[in-house]
């Protein structure tokens, strides 16, 4: 998932519900949580993609996955073990690291 913090694609509540439902249905080891962001610098000022329709978009930097999304998943009842699987273990298995 790379949509955390990007309500232009999927609302935060919906994304948390999707992740939780997949975990509850046994798909923990098939999920990868990632982070991307798209910046441009018109006239030397940083602008984030979809910033105008996502007022919280300025908070969606590369640290957001760890500082925003993962704590929210854990608050919703997803264990630290499962969040580690999505961020560390499963990508390592997939990409052979």
Description:
The protein has 97 residues and is mostly helical. It is 42% helix and 4% strand. The chain has helices at residues 12-24, 64-75, 80-95, and strands spanning 39-40, 47-48. The chain has a two-stranded antiparallel ribbon. A hairpin with a 6-residue loop joins strand 1 and strand 2. The model has no long low-confidence stretch (mean pLDDT 83).
List the helices and strands and how they pair.
Layout: H1 12-24, E1 39-40, E2 47-48, H2 64-75, H3 80-95
Range of helix content? 40-55%
Work out the number of β strands. Answer: 2
How much of the sequence is in beta strands? under 5%
**Low-pLDDT sequence parts:** none
- Shape, principal axes of CA atoms: globular
As laid out across the biggest beta sheet, the strand order is: 1-2
- What's the Cα radius of gyration? 14 Å
Oligomeric state of the chains in view: single chain
The major beta sheet can be summarized as: 2 strands, antiparallel
Structural class: mainly alpha
What is the overall pLDDT average?
83
Distance between the termini: 19 Å
Please, how many helices? 3
Report the order of strands and helices. Answer: HEEHH
